[in-house]
Design brief:
Layout: E1 6-10, H1 16-30, E2 40-43, E3 46-49, E4 53-61, E5 64-72, E6 75-76, H2 84-96, H3 99-105, E7 111-112, H4 120-129
Helix pairs in contact: 2-4
Length: 147
């Protein structure tokens, strides 16, 4: 009887082929392409860790990658108050001050904004003007409170 050896370890650039294969399994089940960040990127001619990623892991069984996991640095926008004028002013402020440009330069690939369903009409319109898209039909949102 053989005992499978399963380990979790940090992903390396040379794992990308196996990571892509695992990712393709998920895409096949979903019937659509999904985003997949690289473990490392080239910057100034050097291979460096992907600045958008906090942690990238692979799971190996008997030396073969059978799964992966990454935690991505993201920007979550949170607004408060009920004034449509405030929502518009904040949206304009972010556009004028290039908050998304600077977040991108810091290595962040996505900005998220959760909107209560009761407020999704007016807030959603302003988010769409800023380039956000509603993905609520495609994804379920789960939260882990780390406080």
């Amino acid at each position: 009887m053989s005992v499978d050896k399963i380990i979790v370890r940090e992903a390396l650039p040379q794992d990308m082929e196996a990571i892509r294969a695992c990712h393709a399994e998920v895409e096949k089940v979903l019937g659509e392409a999904m985003d997949l960040p690289e473990v490392a990127i080239t910057k100034d001619g050097k291979l460096i860790s992907n600045p958008a990623i906090l942690e990238y892991l692979v799971v190996e069984e008997n030396g073969k990658v059978i799964g992966f996991h990454y935690q991505e640095k993201t920007l979550e926008m949170c607004h408060g108050g009920m004034s449509p004028k405030a929502t518009l002013a904040l949206a304009n402020y972010h556009r004028e001050n290039n908050i998304f440009y600077f977040a991108h330069k810091a290595g962040i690939r996505y900005a998220h904004c959760q909107v209560p369903k009761k407020l999704s009409g007016p807030v959603g319109r302003e988010l769409k003007k800023s380039g956000f898209r509603n993905v609520s039909r495609k994804y379920k949102h789960y939260v882990l409170d780390l406080r």
